[in-house]
Amino acid sequence: MKGISIISIWAVLSFSASLWAQGGHPARKQAADEPELPRNHVSLVENKMGTLLQMIRYAYVEDVDLAPIVEKGIVNILEQLDPHSAYIAAKDLKRTNEPLVGNFDGIGVSFQVFEDSVMIIDVISGGPSRKVGLLPGDKIVRIDTMDATGKNATTHFVFTHLRGKKGTKVEVGVKRKGVEEIMFFEIERDKIPLHSVDTYFMLDKKNGYLQLDRFSRTSAEEVADALADLKKQGMKNLVLDLRGNTGGYLDVAVDLVDQFLPKDRLVVYMEGKAQGREEFHTTGKGLFTEGRMVVMIDENSASASEILAGALQDWDRALLVGRRSFGKGLVQRPFNLPDHSNVRLTIARYYTPSGRCIQKPYKDGLEAYYKDIMNRYRHGEMVHPDSIRLPDSLRYHTAGGRVVYGGGGIMPDVFVPADTLRASDYYIALRSKNLLNRFVLHVLDGNREEYKRKYPDFKTFCERFEPDSAFMQSFYDYAEEKGVPHTNFKEAQAGRFLQDLLKEMQADTNLGKARTYTEYMRNVFWDEARINDYLLQKAQKEDENQRIYDETSDKFLRVQLKALFASNLFGPGYFYQVSKEIDEAFQKAVQVLNDKALFERTGIHD
Fold this sequence. Notes:
With 606 residues, this protein is an alpha+beta fold. Helices cover 40% and strands 17% of the residues. The chain is built from 21 helices and 21 strands. The strands form 5 sheets. Strands 3, 4, 5, 6, 7 and 8 form a 6-stranded antiparallel beta sheet that branches. A 6-stranded mixed beta sheet has the order 10-11-12-15-16-21, sandwiched between helices. Strands 1, 13, 14, 17 and 18 form a 5-stranded antiparallel beta sheet that branches. β19 (395-397) and β20 form a beta hairpin. The two termini are 25 Å apart.
């Protein structure tokens, strides 16, 4: 595989990494009356910056700490380049790298802040906390000499004081149900793995599923292990879920494509001003180069995810299901600065095997760049793909002759609209206060062992645990106590309907002066009979919508709660094995995977 020696090159840290540089303004153009800069203007500009700092240091009226000024200046300079060139201060560099390196130093627990305390949700197998005897359900109340309750019960406080250099020790005091005294544990910190494969399992006797959360240094090995295990279980076809995967190292993406394509296939190439064309090819050592394959993507699949999805699409190896991906086609390389801070500088664009660069436009500044996803909702693209307009100049062809497009992300072969239930007012309110998970923790607090005895394994739990009406009512009551009453469909939609109506009236120049809904309808229909008929039909439709919404919403919340119970009792990897039941995109991906005729019609390799 060519080019893997440049292991420091990133496909992207993640598209959120550029949020280090907020704001964004287009570069200022030289005014017509300004003098033309001499040919050596680059050197003059560099000297100009250094001279200014010297002036401030020696001539300014008082002493000034130049460090924060320089850091802000670096951020502002990078804002003029592109959305993904980023500055990372030395103090933030290690934590920023953790998701991509694949590990961090700590004690090995997953926790959540719950009612002014810190509750342990999971204890990592083989980690230092498991070795000393910490258990899920324990509440951390002391860290060394500091209280970990009340105002200190925050994620930032826990991260700051539990993480530390491997080999150092920390004393943790926990309150355990049934034990009156606080229990103290001395824990020696160690390397804690960050897994990039969230979960994998068999869907049936021949179809497998694998969810990849990020592209870290351990991803290739994790995916290889998962594929080997799935094949042992009889896997013939695969769903690879890249939704929400914001990317990582470029060479890791190449290694992952290598698992699915035969030898000597171009995976990706990159080019830049100082970066000549460099190609990356497969080695032929993949574990799953035959069999039907579906790749799931969405608007948050970015960078390395797009390299993987684009290569499999261009070689007609897989069908892509979901929505248009983020559109990140720039390559960053880290450059260290003298104070051990870091600049992630864009050095090239990358191109899929068909020649596509899928980078979306960014010349209008960072604010417009990151409003792109919001605009997709506004334009209706998240519900229907017909609103997407791509010029013929961006047309490319796969190895088998299918038309694909560059610019603005990877277009899926099979579109799946966004789940509107996840955008309902009630669900958003529940999520904003984390009430679903808080309710699960509330129920399990003090009852965890009882639940474990009743449901000793995941299979038993799936078969026997079903939230009934009384259970759901207790959840609705809990949410109402926390300030989120069970809003019905009409209440949830009323404000949105009026806003949409107002926009519609304002957009209509002839009817924009209508002051009431009835007046607006009279202007449209001109007679009372048609108005009353319209309103009657609207009311009947809303009643039907109410019934459908109540049934669907109730089922949606039941499954979400059951999935959270599974995650808390058996580990995070089990969440999706339950929640897939209400995942429309997942259901569509499985349907496509089983449609052998569709693969044959589109020329996708089986």
